[in-house]
Amino acid sequence: MKRIVFSAVMMACVLAVCAGNRVKLIEGDKSIFMEAYVANVVIDDHTTMIDGKDKPADVYYREKSEAEYEKFVNDLDRAHKSFVTYFNEKKPGKVKFEMADSAATADYTLQITVTTMNVGNAGGFAWGLSRKAGGAQIEGTMQLVDNATGEVVCKFEFEKVKGLLAPVFKARAISVYRYLADELLKTVKK
């Protein structure tokens, strides 16, 4: 009986840890996300470390070919747009995210730095694994910077944000950035 109770408690703890929010506010005030402003989104992930390869993305993909690196960058750029679109559709207040072309007119800049990326794989399709098996995963930081003063208004940390399984990297990248937007929304709405 003790084993059953212990197992149930351990399972509940594991589920609580897994179900937790992947984006955490580590500094500042998240209430800024309820105000009306335009934020320029800048995502630094073209040279992030590729998990399991111990190489930056530019080195890892260029070892294959320059075309592979360009495809990787183009896939990520499409995923960045997906992040912005998803956030704007679900946003909590009147804040609006835009991509780098709005830098001159934006009130704030959301700087996202991806420190580690697991690019995932399509192997889960062959084996019929769970919907996230083989999905891309990212870790890093986000900070909202006031463009007028250069001051960091709030800073977030994210870890183990994982997207859905997909046969091509572009779909895995779009999925992981939509999950990042969703996790950010959960954090700022609490």
Concise synopsis of the structure shown:
The chain is an alpha/beta fold. The chain is built from 5 helices and 8 strands; from the N terminus they run αββββααββαββα.
Percentage of residues in DSSP E strands: 25-35%
How do the SSEs run, as a string of H and E? HEEEEHHEEHEEH
Largest sheet: 8 strands, mixed
What is the approximate shape?
A: globular
Average residue pLDDT = 85
Q: Distance N terminus to C terminus?
A: 38 Å
Range of helix content: 40-55%
Low-confidence stretches: 1-18
What is the helix tally? 5
Structural category is alpha/beta
Number of strands: 8
Quaternary status: single chain
Taking all Cα atoms into account, the compactness measure Rg is 18 Å
Structural write-up:
It contains 5 helices and 8 strands; from the N terminus they run αββββααββαββα. The protein is globular, with a radius of gyration of 18 Å. Strands 1, 2, 3, 4, 5, 6, 7 and 8 form an 8-stranded mixed β-sheet that branches. The longest helix has 25 residues, at about 65-90. The protein has helices at about 1-20, 55-65, 65-90, 125, 170-190, and strands at about 25-30, 40-45, 50, 55, 95-100, 110-120, 135-145, 150-160. α2 packs across α3 (about 65-90) and α3 runs parallel beside α5. Residues about 1-20 have low confidence and may be disordered. The chain is of the alpha/beta class and about 190 residues long. Helix content is about 40%, strand content about 25%.
